[in-house]
């Protein structure tokens, strides 16, 4: 254990740091993120939200004994000798109606018709499926014995009063919304969506709708960060493009940290630009990380200003997207109070061999074709590598790469 | 090929059909679904939307030669003999500024400083990374030769004018929104979100916020269908609970088919109820499928009324969710114009053995714990099996099940 493990990240007045491994970067990002406040919302709007309260069943569900099949409610003792060749005759008292308890009681020698989901009438202890019966007027021929409880959903078989159904931090899925409805919980208390300030810097940048002149490029990162954040359940707020003015950068970062739960600054692609971002964050607050040992994505900055995490991303959009997928996702989830981030991974074989060029941990974009993953070649900053890839594979630091046919794990994106 | 393969599904005045395999059900659902109209939206709102036009690069991107590194723009011929021990000296003409073309030309014996992303000045044909240089006043010592084009992003290296970037039917991801921004496409034409009418039937149903009396249960399916549809990019519209009135059911289905792109009716859990739904759809239109050979989920109905697909789902919410995940998802994607549905699958080993009870194709809910999938036991209609499962595995019709340690594919949900 290093000293900083216990004392938390240390700030420095210098903005040049050793690069840190990605696990350390994620740990630091999580350690400086504060959960957002809570709000109570209708469950219809709950998909993807994170519970800030545990969900506990208040009553037994379904709360009464229900039939699991269409059939006849019977007394097991009456029909223990029933068989196809020698059925037992029971007198049918009538039919259970859905949604209302029957006021009749099944007594020895009698039975009642019951539809799936109907309430088991008093006296009965099992349901014979209609397939194993025959009706002759009011007499029902039962051709199969039951065991006590057969085809009955117990009154607490779905949920028992005081059962913990979902813990704090659970990210709600569509099926969970159904579960909440089933226990009558139509309002739910969740973490507020974190508000993420987005600042793009770069003198070469023009708005995406503009026609760039020679030397200029369209500003892409605010789109990537906006849509990525929204998909992760955050509210993105754009603070525009800062072209070349350090004072404007400082003012904008400062304003964004006052108005947001976290701020993401995407730097220009040159080292100088990145250093200005780090310097500004350092002067307004603290810088903990300047450089992560991943390729692409190395020039990532992690700092905070007044308890608000501030992340500096590389300028190349494709590198930015890599760091969004590997680091910023943890920031967003930590702000939302989620202990972990669900990512989808697929084990698959490499179609060709790939070599890692660096000592750093290397992430390679791949396309999945049939049963194989093919590397998407091209400089890591190119947008086409994002368009045409299905996910990334990791080549650990020190490894030389993979041979064709090696099994790899693709993190799908 | 069966006859119906070419002639399309045939309607019948009888509502009792042989069960069909799930592949056939999916084929029929897709064959009766009409793509929604199109609309043009800002790309910021494009995540998850389906392209109704191909996206083609209108110009070369980046459109000019850019440096891929911080370094010096050089003429390769000048420095072919450069080495650490015997550097070549070049005279530095100045620095390329980001965002504007330099009006200087690199001539033999000269070079220019260039930041990553800067426009390559006229005359230069490569960039030497700054790490392989040393500056002495206006003289730059170059310690490594280049090859022509080294560290240069070609003017069409990201996208070439008229390159097809995304085909019709592509479902946009966050990274795709960045790609669209990079080519200046800030508005995009996509399929409209399909409007899905949702009708719940069942005399035993009470609204989720009510306290059920004995025999009653809370209405859950409209929540499942609403949130599931929304996550799949549709607009859910609830038509309420129809308790016990066939005329009301008929009127409501009829109204919903006039107002929506598709209608989903969740039946009660008893066979009778399901038959009434099938009968009503059949009288207003045509029924193609009444029963799919899957467990759970068998009593699914597929029909159409006036060209609007109408799906009847089983009443048990857990079965409903299964059919949403296996069948309705294809309806929603077909309406959106997506040729296929992305599902996430994970190969994993079974922690325990499982047996299939039926001849039908059987779907089993499983929880993933570490490297193993554990079956979530309990009657298939129970909500707790949804709450506590991570996905489903398929046991093909005729198979007996899996042994502990067998590899299975989990469809994550």
UniProtKB/TrEMBL annotation, chains A, B:
CDD domains: MoeA (cd00887). The keyword Transferase applies. One of its GO terms (biological process) is Mo-molybdopterin cofactor biosynthetic process. Pathway: Cofactor biosynthesis; molybdopterin biosynthesis. Residues 197-334 form the MoaB/Mog domain. GO terms for cellular component: cytosol. One of its GO terms (molecular function) is molybdopterin molybdotransferase activity. InterPro entries: MoaB/Mog-like_dom_sf, MoaB/Mog_dom, MoeA-like, MoeA_C_domain_IV, MoeA_C_domain_IV_sf, MoeA_linker/N, MoeA_linker/N_sf. Gene3D superfamilies: MoaB/Mog-like domain, MoeA, C-terminal, domain IV, Molybdopterin biosynthesis moea protein, domain 2, Molybdopterin biosynthesis moea protein, domain 3. The keyword Plastid does not apply. Keywords: Molybdenum cofactor biosynthesis, Transferase. This is Molybdopterin molybdenumtransferase MoeA. It comes from Methanospirillum lacunae.
């Amino acid at each position: 254990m290093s000293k900083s493990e216990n004392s938390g990240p240390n700030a420095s007045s210098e903005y040049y740091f050793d690069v840190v491994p990605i696990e350390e970067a994620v740990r630091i990002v999580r350690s400086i993120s504060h959960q957002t406040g809570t709000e109570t919302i209708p469950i219809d709007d709950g998909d993807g939200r994170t519970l800030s309260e545990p969900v506990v069943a208040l009553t037994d569900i379904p709360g009464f004994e229900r039939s699991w099949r269409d059939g006849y409610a019977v007394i097991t003792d009456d029909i223990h000798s029933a068989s196809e060749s020698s059925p037992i005759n029971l007198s049918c008292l009538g039919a259970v109606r859905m949604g209302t308890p029957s006021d009749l009681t099944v007594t020895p020698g009698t039975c009642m018709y019951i539809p799936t989901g109907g309430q088991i009438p008093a006296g009965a202890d099992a349901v014979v499926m209609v397939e194993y019966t025959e009706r002759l007027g009011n007499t029902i021929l039962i051709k199969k014995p039951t065991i006590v409880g057969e085809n009955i959903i117990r009154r607490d078989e779905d949920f028992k009063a005081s059962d913990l159904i979902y813990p704090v931090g659970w990210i709600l899925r569509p099926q969970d919304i159904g579960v909440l409805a089933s226990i009558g919980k139509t309002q739910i208390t969740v973490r507020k969506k974190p508000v993420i300030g987005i600042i793009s810097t770069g003198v070469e940048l023009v708005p995406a709708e503009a026609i760039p002149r020679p030397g200029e490029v369209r500003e892409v990162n605010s789109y990537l960060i906006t849509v990525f954040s929204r998909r992760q359940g955050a509210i993105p707020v754009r603070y525009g493009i800062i072209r070349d003015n350090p004072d404007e950068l400082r003012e904008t970062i400062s304003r964004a940290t006052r108005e947001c739960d976290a701020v993401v600054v995407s730097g220009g692609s040159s080292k100088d630009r990145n250093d200005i971002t780090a310097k500004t964050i350092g002067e307004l607050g603290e810088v903990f990380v300047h450089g992560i040992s991943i390729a692409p994505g190395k020039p990532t900055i992690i700092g905070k200003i007044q308890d608000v995490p501030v992340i500096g991303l590389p300028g190349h959009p494709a590198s930015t997207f890599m760091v969004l997928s590997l680091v910023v996702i943890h920031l967003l989830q930590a702000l939302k109070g989620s202990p972990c981030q669900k990512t989808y991974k697929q084990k698959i074989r490499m179609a060709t061999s790939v070599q890692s060029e660096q000592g750093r941990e290397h992430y390679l974009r791949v396309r999945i074709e049939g049963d194989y993953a093919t590397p998407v070649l091209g400089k890591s900053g190119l947008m086409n590598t994002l368009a045409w890839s299905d996910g990334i594979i990791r080549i650990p630091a020190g490894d030389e790469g993979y041979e064709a046919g090696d099994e790899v794990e693709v993190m799908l994106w």
